[in-house]
Amino acid sequence: MERLQKYMAHAGVASRRKSEKIITQGRVKVNGKIVTELGTKIDPDKDIVEVDGRVISKEKYVYILLNKPVGYITSVSDPHGRKTVTGLIKGVSQRIYPVGRLDYDTSGLLILTNDGELTYVLTHPSHMVEKTYRVEVKGFPSDEVLKKLETGVKLKDGLTAPARVSAVKRKEKNTIFNLTIHEGRNRQVRRMCDKIGFPVVNLKRIAFGPLNLKGLKTGQYRFLTEKEVKALKNIKE
């Protein structure tokens, strides 16, 4: 027996958390009957599960690492007709979703998958998955100012968690450095830099947990190896 929301996540419907919301909205049927209880368990080999009138079943998991270009939104569709990251992926029949998001004007490492359970692990704050960004800011912040990024910056939604600044380089009129965080607030890196008085002019995510962009040019993608997938799944252990 398996919990309904977990089965839905394995079927690529949505993450486990979003699947729970879909259940409580009365959009799920088990053997023809609407189910709204989150504790419901099913037998994957016998029970028929429908979401919004469509029968679902477990599908083969796909794990993709994309080097996202600027000018694409991190979504599967856009009502305004903007280009989406899923439009860059060719020849994949499964319905894949981005893990977390990168802003329209931010480039770099993005994972896409139909594994809702793994998406939950990688995006839930309790797992504190590290994400490293290559940040270019306007001007020359001192080491003391950059230290503020490490100790925490007070934003409208609260104080940021401790972070790491490394590989600082100063060139022409700008400063470039790596910033490693484990939170996932909206436009967090940009807001942190704005707060210390040095706005971002270029932002690229170069690492996510154990993964990096080695060998991938902008706009290119590849499938994760079994070893890489295992490393991501081990994050919750």
UniProtKB/TrEMBL annotation:
Task: Write down the EC number.
Answer: 5.4.99.-
Look at the named UniProt entry and state the broad enzyme category this protein falls under. isomerase
* Entry superkingdom: Bacteria
GO CC annotations, alphabetized: cytosol
PANTHER family associated with the record = PSEUDOURIDINE SYNTHASE FAMILY PROTEIN-RELATED, RNA-BINDING S4 DOMAIN-CONTAINING PROTEIN
Family that this chain belongs to: Belongs to the pseudouridine synthase RsuA family.
What name is this protein filed under? Pseudouridine synthase
